[in-house]
Amino acid sequence: MKYILTAPEKLNTTVNLPASKSISNRALIINALAGNSIVPVNMSDCDDTNVILKALDEMPPVIDIMAAGTAMRFMTAYLAVTPGEHILTGTQRMKQRPIKALVDALKYIGADIEYTEAEGFPPLRIRGRHLDGGHIEIKGDISSQYISALLMIAPVLADGLEIKLDGEIVSRPYIDLTMCMMRGFGADAEWTGADTIKVNPKPYEPKSFIIENDWSAASYWYEALMLRRDAESEITLTGLTDGSRQGDSAIKYLFSMLGVRTTFKTRERGVPTTVTLKLVETKPPRLDYDFVNQPDMAQTMTVCCALSDIPFRFTGLASLKIKETDRLDALKTEMRKLGYVVRENNTGELSWNGERCRPDNDIVINTYEDHRMAMAFAPAAILYPGIRIDNPHVVSKSYPHFWDDMRRAGFTITEEQ
Predict the structure, then answer these.
(1) Contact 291, 298 (CB under 8 A)
(2) 214 and which of 20, 188, 236, 269 could share a cystine (Cβ 3.0–4.6 Å)?
(3) What angle do CA 403, 221, 11 make, to 5 degrees?
(4) pLDDT in tens, 212-235
(5) Segment (H or E) for 412
(6) Cα(205)–Cα(190) distance, rounded to whole angstroms?
(7) Rounded-to-integer distance, Cα 322 and Cα 97, Å
(8) Catalytic residues
(9) Distance (Å, rounded) from C-alpha 205 to C-alpha 210?
(10) Which parts of the chain have pLDDT scores under 70?
(11) Phi then psi for 11, rounded to 5 degrees?
C-alpha cells in the first residue's frame, strides 16, 4: 500500500507532537527496576515503547520485540538482572542487527546469556540473576543504546558499575540523557573522566515522572517549513523543552543555520512549552556537519539540504548502516529517484556537491521498514506533487499519528493499493 502526497501552498498549523520515544523507553526500564507502580505521565504510544510496556507487563517466556532496536538492547540488560528465563527475539531484520558487544559486556559481569541462532545476533536466551557488577570496557563508537542499557541496570548491581569507553564516543547526548534520568530516580551516576562513567550501588527510588515531547518528530516539520520557502508560513509545535537532554534537540540549531527561527513561548528550564517555527533568513551556500551526536537526523537533513539546493558533507554516520535498514544505502537509492546523486565517500560519510541525474517519472519512495525514511521524504511532496510513499504505516514505530498531522497541516493524502 502507498500514500500519494500533495502539499498545501502555505503551512500554518499547530502540531501536537508525540511523546519522546527515547525518554519513554528509558523511563519504563528505570521504573521497573525501581519497583515503581506509578506510571510515567505522557507515555509515548509508538510501537517501540508499546513492545517494552507489553513485555514488562506480561513477561512471557518468549518476548518478541519485533523491529524495536531500543527494546532489544534495553530488555537484554533488564532481563539479565531479573530472575527468570526468557527468549528475546524480533523480526528477521532484528536478527541481522549485531548485539555481541552488549552481550559480551553483560557476560563479563556474570550474566547468563546465549545465542539461539547466529552467534552475535538475536534471538537470545537469557537466564536472569543477581549480578555483582564491577569494571567493564566497551567501544565508544558502537550504539549508545548498548551503553545506556548497561548504565540503567548498574544501580541494582551489588558493586555498581564502572564503564570505560574506548575510542570515539558517539551519541554522547543520549548517554547523558540516560544518566540524567537515572539521577532523577535517585541513582548515583557520574562521569569521572572524559571516557569513564561510575555508577554506585544506590538503588532507584520510585518517583512520578513527566515525559516531554519528541524533538526527533519535530525535525520533519522544520524540514517542511524549509522546503515550503514561504515567509508567511508558520508552524507551532507543542510540548518541547528548552535545554532538553534529547540529543536531537540540536535540530533547532541545525535549522537556524538554514534560516529557520525557533521561538519558545516560555523558557522555564525543564518545563515543556510550545515553539513557533518561522523562515526568516536566506539559505547558506553549503552545510558541513558531524552527526556523531545526532545520527538519526541525517535522513531529514539529507533530503532537506539537497532539495533546498544546499551542498553538504555529513560525517559521523557509521551507525546508520546497522539501523532498521542500511540508511546510507537507502538514502543514496531514494535520492536518485528525486534526481540527486548523493555519495558515500568514506565510512559514515555522505555528501552532495550539487550533482543531479534524471528523476523518475513516477516517484515511489521505498521505506525499507524504516519509519525515518517515510517521514524524512514525506515533505518532499512540496517540490514533487504526487510523490508516493510505500508502506507508510511504518511511521507507527515512533510517530503513529504522523499522517494525521500531515493532513491537518493541509497535505492531501490518498491511498493506493
Answers:
(1) yes
(2) 20
(3) 85
(4) 999 999 999 999 999 999 999 999
(5) strand 412-416
(6) 17
(7) 6
(8) 296
(9) 15
(10) 322-325
(11) -120, 105
Residues 6+ apart with CB under 8 A from 237: 14, 15, 17, 213, 218, 221, 274, 275, 276, 277
In Å, what is the CA distance from 139 to each residue of 43, 165, 361? Answer: 31, 5, 45
Looking up cell 510513499 gives 389
Please answer whether residues 394 and 367 qualify as being in contact, where contact means their C-beta atoms are separated by less than 8 angstroms.
Answer: yes
Find cell 557520574 and name the residue. Answer: 190
Residue 262 sits at φ, ψ, to 5 deg, of: -110, 120
* Separation CA 381–CA 414 (nearest Å): 13
- 8 A C-beta contact, residue 365 and residue 330: no
Decide: residue 353, CB within 10 A, 0-12 exposed, 13-18 middle, 19+ buried. exposed
pTM of the model: 0.89
Q: Rounded to whole angstroms, how far apart are CA atoms 173 and 179? A: 10
Cell of 85: 528465563
Burial class (CB in 10 A: 0-12, 13-18, 19+), 320: buried
Q: For residue 277, which phi and psi values (nearest 5 degrees)?
A: -105, 135
Backbone angles phi, psi at 350, to 5 degrees: -120, 145
Q: Find how far residue 343's CA is from the centre of its chain.
A: 23
